[in-house]
Amino acid sequence: MADSFNYIPPTEPWLDILYQDKDIIVLNKPSGLLTNPGRGPHLADCLLSRVQAEFKLAQLVHRLDLSTSGVVVIALRRKAERELKRQFAERIVKKRYLAVVAGQPAADEGSIDLPLAVDPERAPRQKVCSKTGKTALTHYRVLQQLNNAALVELRPVTGRSHQLRVHMLALGHPILGDAFYAPAVIKAAAPRLLLHAASLQLLHPYSGQPLEFTADTDFVSANCSLNWPTDNF
């Protein structure tokens, strides 16, 4: 989240529900909506509060950044919350993201293994830090070469704050529309952060059945300015 911003969360649809049963609800969070409440009443509207208006016991087990869109699972019962948190902590849950990045990576696929820590002078921003950083691993694959950009698939193994954004920046290919980490010309190249949680694989917290939830994104065809000079970043 930016240091100061005018929070106007999207309202249509109010909740984009992908799946629901007595234990969990899975939603497609839009970019621009907080996953959980921020500080102050002006930041109270969020995905969790909207779900809790209908399900009082609903609890988060993970979250997406304000600007990131995509699949979020929320527990509707306490036992489901505990089990899902265990799956996230033990890295049983598998996550797949899509992003549009500036430039075209030299390798079609690879891994980024760089430890991350909070930047104390620019919190909540993160930075690569070999001394105090926590292990962070991201696998990437180029899906499509665009004009001065690329559509990439990102599969994080760890779940550090801002991991995908910082890792792609470290690779030399910041994500379009990133207000935190991208140079101004890359930030202005898209109307939003072009990062989307496309799928989530987990075990049902009651039955143990493997489940996969997916959510499409249309940002690849959004109004993006892909023709900036490549020597600007």
Automatic annotation (TrEMBL):
Keywords: Isomerase, tRNA processing. The keyword Isomerase applies. It catalyses: uridine(32) in tRNA = pseudouridine(32) in tRNA; a uridine in RNA = a pseudouridine in RNA; uridine(746) in 23S rRNA = pseudouridine(746) in 23S rRNA. InterPro entries: PsdUridine_synth_RluA-like_CS (IPR006224), PsdUridine_synth_RluC/D (IPR006225), PsdUridine_synth_RsuA/RluA (IPR006145), RluA_PseudoU_synthase (IPR050188). Its EC number is 5.4.99.-. The keyword Nucleotide-binding does not apply. Belongs to the pseudouridine synthase RluA family. This is Pseudouridine synthase.
